[in-house]
Amino acid sequence: MKLPEKFILRYEKIIPEFTLFLKSLEKKRKLSIRINSLKVNKRMMEEILKKYDYESITFYPYAFRLKSERDEFSIGNTLEHFLGYIYVQDIASMIPPIVLEPKKYEKVLDLTAAPGSKTTLISAIMENTGLIVANDINIDRLKALTGNIDRMGCLNVVITNLHGERFGNLFPEYFDKVLLDAPCSSEGTISKNYEVLNHWNELYINKMAKIQKNLIISAFKSLKKDGILVYSTCTFAPEENEGVIDFLLRRYDNALLEEINIPGIKTCEGITEWEGFKNEELKRCVRIYPHYNECEGFFIARIRKLP
Fold first, then answer.
1. What pLDDT score was predicted for residue 284?
2. HEC sequence for the chain
3. Catalytically annotated residue among 184, 234, 285, 295
4. pTM for the whole thing?
5. How far apart are CA 29 and CA 65, in angstroms?
6. Mean pLDDT over all residues of the chain?
7. Tens digits of per-residue pLDDT, 156-194?
8. Which of 20, 45, 88, 118 shows the smallest number of beta carbons within 10 Å?
9. What is the signed CA dihedral for 128, 160, 141, 215, rounded to 10 degrees?
């Protein structure tokens, strides 16, 4: 795999142990699965797990990393997968809903929800209570979202097909929790999808950052006072990560960036200075790198809306 020279020059300055990082991009990752607690009890889970050589994931009791080499296609063809007992999901992708900490009977917005990996986890954490609005602008991706919600038995989810930028005006201060897993340049998924490099350039990064800033304004406006917004991406670009959070903090005095702790995951602090921003508060964001955790690269920030 040949990375663009600009990619290397850009990230060797901010990613620790960069040589290990580069090696990790060429390494095939072991799959991780999530047992669906909406359909599976403890006895059933034990029976399902007998078929796999696995290790537990600290931050969520229903998450497991498979030790043996398995591919997503073979697991996707199992009866357990078809019945919605298991969901193949990267460990890093499970973290934003955990950081969001949705509670039973709350109203939650998943602003860019397809294909539903995080939506279905939120539903499981909430034990099918309350309300989840799962939105996505892409009508084609709604098919996967609808299919996963139905397969996993999520009964507390309403699907919408709106521009995410509209929610702040349509539902001002309505939701207890908002997850914005923003569309991004997807650099953190290179190890499983080399095609990401075909469209990679800084112009594309800046284009995505503009979209993300509009979405995060809408997300924050739709959040109740004292509510929680979790912003996440699967990319390394500061413009799409800390730059978007800095933009929100400067725009709203009542946006408070909170600390994040994820048991069993090695995280790095957010970048505090880059082209266009300098803010020490951004240390509270977390970066999850593939060479430290055997997962996709991710960025996560947790923001509270002060009264």
1. 98
2. CCCCHHHHHHHCCCCCCHHHHHHHHCCCCCCEEEECCCCCCHHHHHHHHCCCCEEECCCCCCEEEECCCCCHHHHHCCHHHHCCCEEECCHHHHHHHHHHCCCCCCEEEECCCCCCHHHHHHHHHCCCCCEEEEECCCCCHHHHHHHHHHHCCCCCEEEECCCHHHHHHHCCCCEEEEEEECCCCCHHHCCCCHHHHHHCCHHHHHHHHHHHHHHHHHHHHCEEEEEEEEEEECCCCCCCCHHHHHHHHHHCCCEEEECCCCCCCCCEECCCEECCEECHHHHHCEEECHHHHCCCCEEEEEEEECC
3. 234
4. 0.96
5. 10
6. 95
7. 999 999 999 999 999 999 999 999 999 999 999 998 888
8. 20
9. -100
Task: With beta carbons less than 8 A apart as the criterion, state whether 203 and 153 touch.
Answer: no
Residue 140 in tokens: 């084609």
C-alpha separations of 67 from 21, 31, 201 in Å: 21, 8, 35
Phi and psi for 255 in degrees, rounded to 5?
Answer: -95, 115
Please name each of the domains of the chain with its CATH number: 5-28+91-305 (3.40.50.150), 30-89 (3.30.70.1170)
Which residue, 178, 183, 158, is CA-closest to 168? 178
pLDDT at 6: 93
Looking at residue 192, its pLDDT comes to: 85
Question: What is the mean predicted confidence (pLDDT) over 194-211?
Answer: 93
- Say yes or no to pLDDT of 97 above 80: yes
Is 234 labeled as catalytic in the residue annotation?
yes
What does the pLDDT average to over 294-298?
A: 95
